[in-house]
Amino acid sequence: MDARTLHWSTCTQKACLLRLMRRWLASVLVLTATGANASAQQSQTPGPAAPPPAFSEGESRSVRSALLGEDRRLLVTLPESYERTTTRYPVLYLLDGSSNIMHVTGIVRFLANARNRVPEMLVVAIPNTNRNRDLTPGIGAALFERVLAEELMPWIDRTYRTSSERVLVGHSLGGSFATHVFLNRPELFRGYIVISAPLWRYDSLARDMRSGIGAAARARASVYLSAGGNETDNIKGGMANFATTLRSAPAAEAPAWSFTILPDEDHNSTMHRSIYDALEARYADYRFPFFEDTTDLKAVGGVSAMEAHYARFGTKMGYRSIPPENRVISAASILTAQGRYDESLKLAETYAADYPDAALRIVITVGLDQLHRGDVQAAVKSLRRATELFPKSPSAFDALGDALCGTADRAAARKARQEAVRLAREANSSRLAGYQQKLDKGC
Q1: What does the angle CA 356 – CA 360 – CA 366 come to, to the nearest 5 degrees?
Q2: In Å, how far from its chain's centre is CA 227?
Q3: Helices (H), 318-391
Q4: What is the pLDDT of residues 391-443, one digit of tens each?
């Protein structure tokens, strides 16, 4: 292992987590897809993050390729939090998409939900139309690079909220194509995962390595290479030769890389373990220590340390990174339980634009907690702030009405509840009847 492996340093196998992930994935695959925004119907009180929803093979979208003269299907699975946030997400592009999307999406979601081991990300799977034409290094791969760069990726960026962090994953012939892109258009992706590629059949590999390795380093592209211990000597030898060339490159001209032989794995089994290890390695610096109570939060340095951690990660990786939604909710819940309301409200305001659902829950929870403790005026002030931050939220006005009922200003309470009913009717909210019942009943 070379000192320049950086993000792709080989990580230790975590058998327990793998077993848990496989059990979770097996249970997910037998379920039908559910909406990503189910949280909108949940309680307003922050609590433990809900389990990730089940998924099918993703949204099926069709993009016309003028370069190939054909329609290309894309299978897109969104992050669990996508529909209730406004933030931008990394994108993992997956070759041989039809056969790989289910288990790769399962790995990504598991790692993102296993105490935020990796950031949430979109998975964009690209099914094949003519695999040998598109993925074999040479003229066909050069054209398909253009399809990616000029047609498919721009369409994804226009259609979804994406960040500049992109990873390309290829197995077998897809790995050869990923290598071709890494050496010829390295700036297209920040990370490359090349698994069990038949590089011994890559005719121009030596020439492409001479010109491409330095270009990859200048583009700050990283590559993770893996092969199975039970694969053919041609597969292992071709991958090892590529690693040797990377190792021999001058330090100033070497990209971040690693190469791993996976014992007891064969050509058909390397994909799953490689994706898991590669993502953990690439995003090792993303993790922030787990906390679930006051003592834990203090031990990790508090909210300021958490925010600084994710900001440093974003600077290092070259895209905007903020604490995950569930970490913000957890921190706010701990602060609110301690009566540190100003700090909870500050969190809500800081992330209101990125996590509007979470921020609304935090502010309402603060106000209702203040009301529960008998500080009616403080509750009214907090819940008025909720209506200012979220003027189209019926639940914010409903909660404000509850607080105002504890004052002498019953007219203001009624007005807040009327606004809750109006907004709920406009949004066709399932809670309209409840809001109307409270309005009719009065304080």
Answers
A1: 145
A2: 26
A3: 325-337, 341-350, 356-372, 376-389
A4: 999 999 999 999 999 999 999 999 999 999 999 999 999 999 999 999 999 99
Name the CA radius of gyration of the chain, rounded.
Answer: 25
Q: What is the DSSP letter of 85?
A: -
* CB-based contact 96:171 (threshold 8 Å): yes
Residue 382, class by beta-carbon neighbours within 10 Å (0-12 exposed, 13-18 middle, 19+ buried)?
Answer: buried
pTM beyond 0.70: yes
CB-based burial label for 206 (10 Å; 0-12, 13-18, 19+) = exposed
Range 130-140 average pLDDT: 96
The domain segmentation of the chain, as residue ranges, is 3-286
Q: What spatial distance separates the first Cα and last Cα of the chain, rounded to whole Å? A: 70
Phi, psi of 93 (to 5 degrees): -95, 130
Cα distances (Å, whole numbers) of residue 165 to 12, 88, 317, 321, 435: 24, 10, 8, 10, 43
Summarised one tens digit per residue, pLDDT across range 58-81 is 799 999 999 999 999 999 999 999
How many beta carbons lie within 10 A of that of residue 17, not counting itself? 15
Tell me if residue 390 falls in helix, strand or coil: coil
Beta-carbon neighbour count of residue 199 at 10 Å?
24
Q: Across residues 191-207, what is the average pLDDT?
A: 97
| pLDDT digits 0-9 by tens, 14-57 | 343 334 333 333 333 322 233 333 333 333 333 344 444 444 56
CB count within 10 Å of CB 90 equals 24
**Class (C level, CATH) for 3-286:** alpha beta
Angle at 77 between CA 73 and CA 80, to 5 degrees: 165
Query: How do strand 222-228 and strand 256-262 relate by DSSP bridges?
Result: parallel
Q: Which residues of 356-376 are buried (b: 16+ CB within 10 A; e: fewer)?
A: bbbbbbbbbbbbbbbbeeebe
The 3-state DSSP class for residue 81 equals coil
All residues at 6 or more sequence positions from 261 whose CB lies less than 8 Å from its CB, including other chains: 226, 227, 228, 229, 236
C-beta neighbour count of 434 within 10 angstroms: 15
Q: What does each C-alpha distance from 199 to 100, 105, 209, 225, 339 come to in angstroms?
A: 21, 26, 12, 11, 61
